[in-house]
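Predict the 3D structure for this chain.
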Amino acid sequence: MRTRLLAALPLAALSLALLSGCATTSAEPTDTATPAADGTCQYVEGGSASKEVDVPSADPVDAEQAVISTSIGDITVTLDGDRTPCTVNSFVSLSEQGYYDDTTCHRLTTSGIFVLQCGDPTATGTGGPGYSYPDELDGSETYEAGTVAMANAGPNTNGSQFFLVYEDTALGPDYTVFGHMDEASTALVAEAAADGTESGLGDGAPKTPVDITSVTIG
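Done. Predicted structure below.
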């Protein structure tokens, strides 16, 4: 099962196609909203983990910032734990366990949808953490430049893969927005994206590699 980004506008043939390239686990989607009534998070184990990690604690952590150290420079993200506590909790847990260390952002889109997709240790678009969890959406989500959001394989199938929006992008409110890059970080991603993909097409591996060395939570 591959996670995906859906083209929101009828642009070119590429944009009309399903933009896929990120898998979570094979666990069945859950209809349970997060957080639960008691404030805890729901994580469903299932599928193979690309790197062995523990499932996050059900109790959300308090974290405000993440610095993603990459081959193009540090990407600073302000985390929105108030709005998306369980998504931030998962991202922090994976980061602190080294799940994202020494991984490659495997997918760049430059036509209609302007994102760099990361978070798969296999760099194939099929990797996940061995668990999934529900969306945290309220219908007001937008994907302006600087947005950091979860890729998914449909409703309530979040795993480890996320995308960085480097130019305003029109998408439906289907992807949990859990943070925003600062202006300098957004510019770094946009600069790498300007080189296009290895194939020269609008969707594929970035020509300028973006390798994550570590993620520091503050």
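The radius of gyration is 16 Å.
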